[in-house]
Amino acid sequence: VGAVMYYMNWRLGIIVICTLPVVVFATKIFQRFMKRAFEEVRNEVAALNSFVQERVTGMKILQLFTRERIEYKNFKAINERHKKAWLKTVWYNSIFFPVAEFLSSITLGLVVWIGGINVVFGEVATVGDLTAFIMMIPMMFRPLNQIANKFNTLQMGMVAADRVFGVLDTESHIDDHGTRIAGHFKGQVRFNDIHFSYVKGEEVLKGLSLEINAGETVAIVGSTGAGKSTLINILNRFYATDSGEITIDGTNIEAFTLDSLRKQIAVVLQEVFLFADTILNNITLNDPEINEEQVIEAAKKIGVHEFIMRLPNGYHYNVKERGVMLSSGQRQLISFLRAYVTDPSILILDEATSSVDSHSEQLIQEATDTITKGRTSIIIAHRLATVKKADKIIVLDNGLIVEQGTHKQLLRKKDGYYKNLYEVQFLQEEVA
């Protein structure tokens, strides 16, 4: 449009073109401020969403401790910051668009004034030129206004995209450079002089060495913070060790691809996570290699089938978000079946019975005896009743192995760490 106007009447065209740098400059300034404003909006939206999600999840705790009024005030404060951030974007818009309209009007006024004088005195401009300029000036400025208007939506999307790509571009601290595909292991596991720390300078494992024979059931006990769960995390390669080597059947676990390694290690955690889906899908996790018949057969072997069939629709019962329709014991049994149905080479029970009732614990104990037979199994437990049958018990304290042996061997140690733990838990029961 500017080129056409310049071609029609270069004197009037120069007037129009000279205003463009001012408009472009104003647009650049506007974009800079709007980007900052939308970044603030996205931060406040993230804070608001996080606050609501946490409070909805922990609603029972808030109600038990009568924190509703306090949390409502906190919500209002966060929401107020969110509102102010949005109002800031509205304020910037309310400044820019009048400025753009003002520049457009000034340009149009200058053209009418100068062009009108030329027409009156019969100089270079004609009535046709002036009419054409009056029609084309809005046509030239309208796209700039539309671009600025669309920029709001674009900028909000770009800020959100920056956050998404910030997550996607985060490099994993675990190098998945392994090339070997892990098949079914015999199950010999060795930890050789393992040093590990979550925070540099604060070692959790301090030169730990441990050998677990194929098919052996090993229990790991110790006080909170001794390093029990850390062993499981580094075996699954959720964290990399500071030094030392972990091998399975004589091969360093770093030589295997992460996917194939983790497929051979099944873990039952203390805190069970269930998706808002059917029991069957929560067990198979939509693995096409596991069908319903296999799940039912596995459930019968470990004594879980009857409990599931008592639920409406059986294996197709929808457990809702986080399994709220089930008791903690029932959720743990489903998690147990989820691990077993994959037929893992190595089975890990991480405090798997610490939050279940006596009946569920009995079912799990019976199931444990079934699925650990002939399979390398690692049992982490605070409740020592669950480890009596283990082939070997490892006692950890402050990142080191302080004792190891069978249940009977450890009880014979005078003033032994395990013996003291056992007596604290069972002395009153045995006296009774």
Strand order of the largest sheet: 6-7-8-3-9-10
The number of domains is 2
Q: Order of SSEs, N→C? A: HHHHHEEEHEEHEHHHHEHEEEHH
- According to CATH, the fold-level topology of the largest domain is Rossmann fold
**What general form does the structure show?**
elongated
End-to-end gap: 98 Å
Quaternary structure state of the chains depicted? single chain
Annotation field: number of helices: 14
Radius of gyration: 35 Å
Spans of at least 5 consecutive residues whose pLDDT stays below 50 are none
Question: CATH-wise, what's the superfamily of the largest domain?
Answer: P-loop containing nucleotide triphosphate hydrolases
What structural class do you assign from the helix and strand content?
Answer: alpha/beta
Helix amount, in percent?
55-70%
> Under the CATH scheme, which architecture of the largest domain would be assigned?
3-Layer(aba) Sandwich
Brief summary:
With 432 residues, the chain is α/β, with parallel strands linked by helices.
